[in-house]
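Table S2 (continued). Query chain:
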Amino acid sequence: MKIYLAGPDIFRPDVDDWIANARELCRQHGFEALTPFDHGETEPRKILNGNLELIRKAQIVVANLNPFRGFEPDSGTAWEIGFALALGKPVVAYLADVRPLAEKLSAATAVSGPSAPQPRDPNGFLIEDFGLPVNLMLAVPCRIVAGGLAEALAVVDGLPSLSRPVE
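Corresponding output:
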């Protein structure tokens, strides 16, 4: 089974090591990892088209939704998740911190207190409080896993609709 690995990990300073480790971890589970580096493109439109083709080839997307460049998941990863879902592909996403979004953001940035009926960010925008670890548009359609890639792959192993034939 081919798994597209979505996430901001491609921006890591140790990206080559991360990819090698991710591929090996996927291989140990019997999966083939597809990463955004696999197409070798370096121009924006070609990168986009290459990533879309890799998502089309994959049976599932495993996505890193940990905060990136702020408090929210990587916007490119969120877009790839939406594309995969539009194609009918399942998405398993992982987070190191699965506390509710309102709790995480209230602790970090929100203006709160007895006079604030609902948590708000410093710009006055409401912080959604559905008890979900990320925005509902990601949390509801994705299978959210606490931990990292290893924990997400363990969940993929157990998904009945993705069972592989016994060899």
